[in-house]
């Protein structure tokens, strides 16, 4: 009982429910290990008693939590409403806040007698402006506390209704000028074309976070070294202004590198080679070293200095980690002892000794940032109301720059994953260390705020992978199977408030990936704050009733509606059952092939019959391309604010970009976009594809469009 109480006080769940009617207890050893990662000693019964007494005493005497949230225009938060009469509050506004040039001072008045229709906000409260402020409270009995006060608007910005766009993994979209993988110039080009030609409202890409260097690099964009800074592998070298001013012999070296890059591109597009990020980076890094020798013009130097000042310590740490990784390898826990601490004297000396390399990596961050800005500008100038939708991975690589620079913020010996459920009896371990909720709260969520601010700087919207992580995450202790993990709660109110505030400041939409098992109340909490969800056609059924396809009018408005994602089969592969045979070849099926094929065929047939009844399949059955169009006609007939087209779907690609459950059995994250025959296609060929234009007419006002009655129900 004591351990359970101690765990509850620290947000650690001692049970979980893999299904509605099943509750599973978390092993005590797991609870003890998770508490230890949170700095709580619970090894023995005596330790539990001491830690529990300390936690209960701290809770009883605590005036305020470390971070307090106030939603603009909403009732006073309970933590402030509970302050004793006579308490004095001082709010020191966030630097740069408008509307509050000096501290705000308030005094808690005694609660008046209950009056019918009395205002919910007390008269003594003066709402501070939006921002992250310092709150100081002094009580009449001489208690004193300082906390962070986050004042957030009630909702994030919303997209215009009925906008459509593309979803694409940037690396997979090569143009005729790419260096072996898609880059930021390709992204800008796609956005400019889609906005001007198709009236598209957005382009959503995979995470562009910095990867962990090394050969081979982990190809997954969802396991980065840093989520705070982008990866310079996405740079388009020729677009860097200094590139045009390289003299001899650097010019000849650059020409040689371009020829090698052309060979990489040719191998991917015409010789069946996979995208080789390491090979691309090896060439780009050599080119960037040459370009780096060209002095910046005064204006460019001033812009770079402004960038350095704005990014501050975070960029300095990131660049130093990159420089040290060149010398000692990317596993920082194996570095010389003094260098494992970014604040040690040895690390301080390294900043001086490696100054040129720190400047090089800082410059790359700046160059990448400028090309990200260019891509968003191209999107908005094309008429896109949203523009580029960036993606935030759920975590970072345990050996990366973020874990080195922010060691106190991460839980040691823990990994994020998913508990066992009806679809995966073994659970999942994603190998990503979680942030410590207590450390985030104590810092006023500074790492989280900085992360969001960086990602939103050049984004029209932000997609958050596994958005349920804002509420809780499944922690798996090192050395234990995923079945022996435990849920650890976040302060969801604070996580949401920071997200809403930063999105409001950036004028950006927020999309949450909320597929799979979702804790009750999470979708409602996100919707209340204007965070859109993700709805994939094949999963949208009346699960609480008939189990049949969900009628278009029954879909939620606040979502991005799509037919597939990077982790799912392409629409053509699903319609033909090829995704089942692929999983069979790789030994991933849990039932006999014949049974899986039959169940999949029945599911597809039910959807196609429904589409036909809705008059969305006028071409009749047996036409794969027509069926893909019918699926997207259905998406258009829903009330979803945003409709996303998986770019490979537009040209008939049949291969998934990622096949969960595989590692080297399948070329995850390394495939170029291909046509229906499996031949890779360039960006130029994609934009000229008649198949693409026939599909996109479905989502515009072209002759291919046809809308189903929104209240149509399956018969």
Automatic annotation (TrEMBL):
InterPro entries: GH, Glyco_hydro_77. Keywords: Carbohydrate metabolism, Glycosyltransferase, Transferase. Its EC number is 2.4.1.25. Pfam families: Glyco_hydro_77. It catalyses: Transfers a segment of a (1->4)-alpha-D-glucan to a new position in an acceptor, which may be glucose or a (1->4)-alpha-D-glucan. GO terms for molecular function: 4-alpha-glucanotransferase activity. It is an enzyme of class 2 (transferase). The keyword Ligase does not apply. The keyword Ribonucleoprotein does not apply. Gene3D superfamilies: Glycosidases. Belongs to the disproportionating enzyme family. This is 4-alpha-glucanotransferase. It comes from [Kitasatospora] papulosa.
């Amino acid at each position: 009982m004591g351990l359970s109480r101690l765990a509850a006080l620290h947000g650690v769940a001692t049970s979980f429910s893999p299904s509605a009617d099943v509750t599973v207890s978390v092993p005590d050893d797991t609870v003890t290990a998770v508490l230890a990662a949170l700095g709580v000693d619970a090894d023995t019964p005596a330790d539990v008693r001491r830690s529990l007494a300390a936690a209960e005493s701290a809770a009883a005497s605590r005036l305020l939590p470390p971070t307090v949230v106030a939603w603009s225009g909403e009732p006073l938060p309970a933590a402030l409403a509970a302050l004793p009469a006579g308490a004095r509050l001082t709010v020191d506004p966030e630097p740069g806040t408008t509307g509050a040039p000096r501290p705000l001072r308030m005094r808690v008045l005694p609660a008046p007698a209950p009056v019918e229709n009395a205002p919910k906000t007390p008269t003594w409260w003066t709402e501070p402006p939006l921002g992250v402020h310092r709150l100081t409270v002094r009580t009449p009995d001489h208690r004193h506390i300082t906390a962070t006060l986050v004042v957030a608007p009630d909702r994030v910005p919303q997209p215009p209704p009925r906008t459509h766009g593309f979803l694409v993994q940037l690396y997979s979209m090569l143009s005729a000028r790419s260096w072996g993988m898609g880059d930021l110039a390709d992204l800008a080009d796609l956005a400019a074309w889609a906005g001007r030609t198709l009236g598209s409202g957005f382009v959503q890409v995979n995470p562009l976070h910095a990867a962990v260097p090394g050969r081979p690099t982990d190809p997954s964009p969802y396991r980065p070294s840093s989520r705070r800074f982008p990866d310079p592998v996405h740079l388009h070298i020729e677009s860097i202004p200094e590139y045009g001013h390289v003299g001899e012999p650097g010019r000849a070296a650059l020409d040689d590198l371009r020829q090698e890059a052309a060979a990489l591109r040719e191998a991917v597009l015409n010789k069946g080679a996979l995208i080789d990020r390491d090979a691309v980076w090896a060439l780009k890094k050599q080119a960037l070293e040459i370009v780096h020798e060209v002095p910046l013009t005064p204006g460019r130097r001033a812009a770079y200095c402004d960038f350095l000042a704005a990014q501050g310590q975070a960029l300095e740490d990131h660049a130093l980690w990159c420089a040290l990784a060149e010398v000692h390898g990317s596993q920082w826990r194996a570095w010389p002892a003094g260098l494992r601490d970014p604040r040690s004297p040895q690390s301080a000396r390294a900043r001086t000794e490696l100054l040129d390399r720190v400047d090089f990596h800082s410059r790359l961050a700046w160059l990448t940032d400028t090309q990200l800005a260019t891509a968003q500008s191209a999107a908005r100038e094309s008429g896109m109301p949203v523009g580029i939708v960036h993606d935030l991975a759920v975590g970072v690589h345990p050996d990366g720059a973020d874990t080195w620079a922010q060691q106190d913020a991460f839980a040691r010996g823990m990994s994020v994953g998913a508990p066992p459920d009806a679809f995966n009896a073994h659970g999942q371990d994603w190998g990503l260390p979680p942030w410590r909720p207590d450390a985030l709260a104590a810092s006023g969520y500074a790492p989280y705020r900085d992360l969001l601010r960086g990602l939103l700087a050049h984004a029209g919207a932000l997609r958050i992978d596994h958005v349920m992580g804002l509420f809780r995450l499944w922690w798996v202790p090192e050395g234990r199977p995923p079945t022996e993990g435990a849920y650890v709660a976040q302060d969801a109110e604070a996580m949401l408030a920071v997200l809403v505030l930063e999105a409001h400041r950036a004028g950006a939409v927020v999309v949450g990936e909320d597929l799979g098992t979702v804790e009750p109340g999470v979708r409602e909490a996100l919707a209340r704050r204007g965070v859109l969800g993700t709805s994939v056609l094949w999963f949208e059924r009346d699960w609480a009733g008939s189990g049949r396809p969900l009628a278009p009018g029954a879909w939620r408005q606040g979502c991005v509606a799509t037919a597939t994602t990077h982790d799912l089969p392409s629409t053509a592969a699903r319609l033909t059952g090829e995704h089942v045979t692929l999983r069979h070849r790789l030994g991933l099926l849990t039932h006999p092939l014949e049974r899986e094929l039959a169940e999949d065929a029945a599911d597809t047939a039910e959807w196609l019959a429904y589409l036909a009844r809705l008059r969305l399949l006028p071409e009749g059955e047996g036409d794969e391309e027509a069926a893909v169009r019918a699926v997207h006609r259905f998406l258009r007939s829903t009330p979803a604010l945003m409709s996303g087209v998986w770019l490979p779907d537009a040209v008939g690609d049949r291969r998934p970009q990622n096949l969960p459950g595989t590692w080297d059995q399948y070329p995850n994250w390394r495939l170029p976009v291909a046509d229906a025959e499996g031949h890779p296609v360039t960006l130029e060929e994609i934009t000229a594809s008649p198949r693409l234009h026939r599909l996109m007419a479905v989502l515009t006002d072209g002759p291919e469009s046809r809308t189903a009655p929104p209240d149509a129900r399956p018969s």
